[in-house]
């Protein structure tokens, strides 16, 4: 199958040419993948949802806004390719286009994280338009992509606020475990405050239940609780706990490239379908 097939790309074929992003038909939709709780599947969701969107022909950019740099590592971007990154973009030292690196997946690009990102929260405190710096920096490239996914760090500090100010919507990965809902209400309050102060049109695209374990009754109890509270904001697709998903990053690959057939890959393809349906609506 040729790489440029309109409906589905063969993501297992590395693209030697790595073409620059083509101009999208409309401004990109920007999603912040966020949850202040650590280890709930933010990075895994950002990488694999982005890959699934690229696989169906979308131009996608990931912004690695986490000093841990897991999205960059998980996409096989080595230290040598991380001279310029989201730190420089937010500081205004490099245009976003110049900090963008192509990945192995056709149509998927990343602005990687660099080590200096860990000091950025403090540097931002006294800066002008400190919450809007990412939004301002992304403006010149919003026609280059269909979707931008911002992988947020596990905190509700200035980096995540920058993501919320730049985003159209928040995508919340939620691990099916004890106290999952407690953290979620704090996140929702933060989103409401951002709506009031910096970004009135920000909304929640959806909540994705991650690491769902069918053998664990707690998983289904938590899932029921979240659904009864948030209703259809919760995607129907549930991401199962799947060892292939956790193995993939150490190979520098999205799980969709590492093992296309495993349950985790299939779930992320379904999730992409749901996200697109919510975006494009039933009439388009
Ligand atoms: N569906 C899954 N099945 C099995 N392991 C998973 C799954 N999703 C994520 N993991 C593993 O769980 C760990 C945490 O996931 P991930 O890094 O995506 O979370 P995170 O919310 O980005 O973490 P942090 O808050 O540190 O940024 C990782 O080791 C990842 O490989
Ligand atoms: Mg992460």
Attribute tags:
binds magnesium ion; binds adenosine-5'-triphosphate; 8 strands; 284 residues; disordered N terminus; single chain; alpha/beta; Rossmann fold; eight-stranded mixed β-sheet
Question: How is this structure best described in words?
Answer:
With 284 residues, the chain is α/β, with parallel strands linked by helices. The protein has a single domain, classed as Rossmann fold. It contains eleven helices and eight strands. The protein has helices at 42-55, 70-74, 86-91, 120-124, 133-138, 158-166, 180-197, 217-230, 243-247, 255-258, 263-280, and strands at residues 29-33, 60-64, 101-102, 108-111, 147-151, 169-175, 203-212, 234-240. Strands 3-4-2-5-1-6-7-8 form an eight-stranded mixed beta sheet, sandwiched between helices. Strand 7, helix 8 and strand 8 (234-240) form a beta-alpha-beta unit. Helix 1 packs across helix 11. The radius of gyration is 18 Å and the shape is globular. Mean pLDDT is 91; it is low at 1-7 and 11-18. Bound molecules: adenosine-5'-triphosphate (ATP) and magnesium ion. Adenosine-5'-triphosphate binds at residues 38-44, 66, 68, 70, 154, 210-211, 239, 241-242, 245-246, 249, 264.
Shape: globular
What are the secondary-structure elements, in order, as H or E? EHEHHEEHHEHEHEHEHHH
Characterize the main sheet: 8 strands, mixed
Low-pLDDT regions: 1-7, 11-18
Which structural class best describes the helix and strand composition? alpha/beta
Compute the number of helices. Answer: 11
Q: Determine and state the CATH class.
A: Alpha Beta
Rg over C-alpha atoms, rounded to the nearest angstrom = 18 Å
The neighbouring-strand order within the major sheet is 3-4-2-5-1-6-7-8
Helix percent reads: 25-40%
What is the strand tally?
8
Superfamily (CATH H level) name = P-loop containing nucleotide triphosphate hydrolases
Bound ions, cofactors and other small molecules, one mention each: adenosine-5'-triphosphate, magnesium ion
């Amino acid at each position: 199958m040729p790489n440029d097939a309109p409906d589905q790309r063969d993501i297992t074929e590395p693209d030697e040419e790595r073409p620059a992003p083509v101009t999208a038909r409309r401004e990109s939709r920007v999603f912040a993948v966020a949850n202040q709780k650590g280890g709930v599947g933010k990075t895994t969701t950002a990488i694999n949802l982005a890959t699934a969107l690229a696989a169906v022909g979308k131009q996608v950019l990931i912004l690695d806004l986490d000093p841990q740099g897991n999205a960059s590592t998980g996409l096989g971007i080595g230290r040598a390719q991380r001279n310029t990154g989201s730190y420089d973009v937010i500081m205004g030292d490099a245009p976003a286009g110049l900090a963008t690196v192509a990945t192995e997946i056709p149509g998927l690009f990343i602005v990687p994280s660099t080590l200096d990102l860990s000091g950025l929260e403090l540097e931002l405190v006294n800066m002008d338009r400190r919450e809007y710096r990412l939004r301002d920096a992304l403006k010149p490239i919003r026609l280059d992509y269909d979707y931008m996914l911002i992988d947020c760090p596990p905190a509700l500090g200035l980096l995540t606020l920058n993501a919320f100010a730049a985003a159209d919507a928040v995508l919340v990965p939620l691990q099916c475990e004890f106290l999952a809902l407690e953290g979620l209400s704090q996140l929702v309050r933060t989103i409401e405050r951002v709506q009031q102060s910096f970004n009135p049109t920000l909304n929640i695209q959806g909540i994705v239940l991650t690491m769902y374990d069918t053998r664990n009754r707690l998983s289904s109890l938590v899932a029921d609780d979240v659904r009864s509270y948030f209703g259809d904001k919760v995607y129907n697709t549930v991401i199962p706990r799947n060892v292939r998903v956790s193995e993939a990053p150490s190979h520098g690959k999205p799980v969709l490239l590492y093992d296309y057939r495993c349950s985790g890959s299939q779930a992320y393809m379904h999730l992409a379908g749901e996200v697109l349906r919510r975006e494009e609506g039933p009439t388009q």
